[in-house]
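Before drawing any conclusions, I looked closely at one protein's amino acid sequence and its backbone structure tokens, quoted below without any editing.
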Amino acid sequence: MSIFTRIKDAIFGHDRSTEATTRKPAQQSAPKPTTTSGIPASPVDAKWEREVDVEAVLESRAASNPQKLNWRSSIVDLMKLLDIDSNLENRRELARELGYTGSTEDTATMNVWLHKRVMEELRKNGGKVPASLVA
């Protein structure tokens, strides 16, 4: 499973077990595989009829997390909040998945790009993401 899919599943599936059974993917030309939770198996297939409020989900998780995580601007903290290992190799893998063309040795630049791109991809896949998180 891709790193982005794990991020998306953690957000789109978070506290939504009752909705997962009633929510349906947007109409597509052919049926797509889903996980057992009803969440599409790939980022491309993750378009929902109703938006997921990404900020509300992350705020809720942050409120119950003992660590003070700066998920609004840090990809490392965002991944930690979602219980995804934020080690450098996972961030490099995420960068490859999302099409990063810069140097993965310049981790500061890569991390800033990753955070913005993850938020953009969440929005493209049915997430309601404030403009301040994708700008």
